[in-house]
Amino acid sequence: MNLCEIVERLNRNNDLTDEEFIFLIKNNNSISDDLLQKYAQKMSQKFFGKNIYLRGLIEFTNYCKNDCYYCGIRRSNKNAERYRLNSEEILSCCEMGYNLGFRTFVLQGGEDGYFTDDMICSIVYEIHSKYPDCAITLSLGERSKESYKRFFENGADRYLLRQETSSKSHYEFLHPKEMSFQNRQRCLYDLREIGYQVGCGFMVGSPNQKAEDLVKDLRFMQELKPHMIGIGPYVPHKDTPFAHYERGNLELTLKMLGIIRLMFKDALLPSTTSLGTIHPKGREMGILHGANVVMPNLSPLNVRKKYMLYDGKICTGDESAQCRIFLEKRLNRIGYKVLMSRGDHPDFTK
Ligand code: SAH
Predict the structure, then answer these.
(1) What's this model's pTM, rounded to 2 decimal places?
(2) Cβ(84)–Cβ(166) under 8 Å?
């Protein structure tokens, strides 16, 4: 098999055979890497131009009932200093974000039972009433279909829930046995059915991940048809059972971004914080490989360092306003423009 021919075929057909995907994932050469990057950039520009959507991320709780082996805020990490924002604090993040131009707020947190469905509904409702021109994205883990429905009815538009891996045995390697592979996928299908713009995704280079597992992720996403796909390298956290595993590889993450852009042509693809963590120009590189979204942090400065999913997480020391200005400059430098509109998926623009 020839790598350049495979990339040509992926660009033409937006798909490959499993064998071709595996070959492309496992092998490298600079000519085919450049070709993939060129096509991914072209595809992204065809749908979105040289525009990057910004989303304001509010990390509202780091309490979590789950114990994922890779995650720094897992419940067994006794070194994690726990915090929760109350609804006024969340709303004041939105206010600051709104004044900085953000029109999407992403509420992300650990799976924290303190926030009942009623509380989430009322927070969503308040944000929606105060900022009716903004999109609300939730990312609070697995809940029942009924709960997701109530959040939606109260004004939530989008939901991010990474499948983490689409291989059952790999899922069971990454998570303790009380966590269910099937339930996570069930959530994603429920969210889609309710009418959310749905985001899934996975870590690249998570412990024990094989090229075959990545292909399963691609196949799972072909079936789910998500509107957003978040991928980033696995980065170890010192206080987790997986502390000793190596971080995910930059080149492989960029390659997966390029592949995903060519397969899911008009999807919203963030260039993630973890990508920016493993390389100082990581987020720019992500954009140059087909990503079209960046999610700057709007959380209050005093909690930033506590939402430590992995070691070395960037943007824990800058004011939101500063982050926003820096980011815009950096994107301009690579020839891209920041767009502050809601940035719905093309299927959802009314
Ligand atoms: N509780 C929410 C939010 C989880 S944090 C949920 O279940 O969806 C958001 C994402 O961070 C996770 O989905 C995971 O893919 C990623 N993440 C967690 N630990 C990580 C690590 N060590 N390295 C890289 N990404 C990590």
Answers:
(1) 0.98
(2) no
